[in-house]
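User: Just a sanity check before I run the rest of the batch. Below are the structure tokens for the first item. I only need the designed sequence back.
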């Protein structure tokens, strides 16, 4: 199955986007851990979030979807036993969070996923859980899923390097309040994807959990706390927003998104400042956040706080004058695809030279041409390269349905441009 993208003129659009995937994962978990009923508004129904919801249901939470609203009957953090494996598809977030959450249960939990998911690293999280009293191991002994978790979290003190994934820290923070001893977590190196930890801490606070932190180096969560059920509204997904702002950047047009603000905790909101450095205009008003395209110039940028947007930036950079140097993205090799290699390969098909570096890419802007784009079963490759098709003819996206992982309605919204 393929989808050909039709070039457009200057785009002018105002859109209200679906809720944040990152917030939806965390809110589903917090509501499931709370006693009582919670209502989540503007939740994202996508493959990844539905995998998390399905796993939480098997653990005993009552989860009812009504469009973008989710009614959650929480368990108070007391999981029921689960027979058979919990399947988590290709969702790294679900795997890492549910591995930690299983430590709150009783008995043995078996978590597995797609072949690609079973290549993604977990060893550091497993070792951290062991420090907190949890018996857990990689079934194949390679530090990757499938994993076996024996419930019985006690808590205590542990360490993470912070270099591979911020999801390890978020996973521990989500379970720490329910550990009898709480948890103290020391980060020994530089933490990647810091804004995602900020999201986790925001959700903890909104659901009644207190914590202490020293920057991104030390976190203390007191034990025997209780999540509080509540009504919670989820803002738009800033990662999804990036494709529409990039569309405005490439076509010299204008796109306004109504349900995002510059003060969002989502790190991907800072993509606006990256595009501004390249030559675009940004405006915030009561109507929402607007990006206006302009002549694009290559820049040097550290993308450590918004790694998911490296493919989007790379496509924009292909049309910019001069070189764009992307750093801080070494951990992209462990995503749904090796995103540094995937992006470089597909840009090469379009006639654009992109060099892989140890922690990023160097993209030499030029005059791209059409190509058949392989998507590597990676939603962000599909959506990023769709942007190029607005500017030049002949961009054909293979397996366009992979967008269902994070944005099932992406192509419908795309037509609104």
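Assistant: Here's the designed sequence for the first item:
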């Amino acid at each position: 199955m393929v989808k050909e993208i039709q070039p457009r003129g200057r785009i002018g659009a105002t859109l209200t986007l679906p809720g944040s995937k990152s917030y939806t994962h965390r809110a589903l978990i917090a509501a499931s851990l709370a006693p009582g009923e919670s209502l989540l508004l503007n939740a994202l129904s996508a493959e990844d979030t539905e995998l998390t919801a399905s796993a939480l249901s098997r653990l005993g939470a009552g989860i009812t979807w009504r469009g973008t609203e989710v009614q959650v009957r929480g368990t108070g953090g007391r999981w029921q036993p689960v027979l058979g494996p919990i399947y988590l598809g290709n969702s790294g977030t679900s795997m890492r969070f549910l591995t930690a959450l299983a430590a709150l249960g009783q008995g043995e939990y078996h978590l597995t996923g797609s072949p690609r998911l079973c290549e993604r690293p977990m060893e550091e999280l497993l070792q951290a859980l062991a420090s907190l009293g949890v018996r857990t191991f990689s079934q194949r002994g390679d530090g990757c899923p499938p994993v076996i978790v024996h419930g019985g979290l006690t808590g205590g003190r542990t360490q993470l390097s912070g270099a591979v994934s911020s999801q390890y820290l978020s996973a521990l923070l989500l379970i720490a309040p329910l550990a009898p001893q709480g948890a103290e977590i020391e980060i020994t190196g530089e933490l990647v994807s810091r804004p995602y930890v900020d999201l986790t801490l925001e959700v903890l606070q909104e659901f009644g959990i207190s914590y202490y932190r020293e920057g991104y180096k030390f976190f203390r969560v007191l034990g025997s706390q209780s999540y509080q059920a509540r009504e919670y509204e989820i803002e738009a997904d800033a990662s999804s927003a990036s494709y529409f702002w990039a569309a405005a950047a490439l076509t010299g047009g204008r796109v306004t998104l109504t349900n995002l603000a510059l003060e969002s905790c989502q790190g991907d909101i800072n993509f606006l400042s990256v595009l501004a450095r390249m030559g675009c205009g940004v405006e915030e008003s009561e109507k929402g956040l607007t990006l206006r395209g302009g002549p694009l110039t290559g820049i040097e940028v550290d993308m450590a706080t918004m790694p998911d947007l490296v493919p989007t930036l790379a496509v924009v950079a292909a049309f910019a004058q001069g070189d764009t140097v992307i750093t801080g993205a070494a951990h992209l090799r462990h995503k749904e695809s090796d995103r540094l290699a995937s992006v470089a390969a597909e840009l090469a098909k379009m006639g654009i030279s992109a060099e892989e570096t140890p922690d990023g890419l160097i993209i030499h802007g030029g005059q791209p041409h059409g190509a058949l784009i392989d998507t590597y079963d990676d939603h962000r490759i599909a959506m990023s390269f769709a942007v190029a098709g607005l500017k030049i003819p002949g961009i054909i996206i293979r397996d366009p349905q992979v967008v269902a992982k994070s944005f099932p309605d992406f192509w419908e919204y795309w037509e609104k441009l």
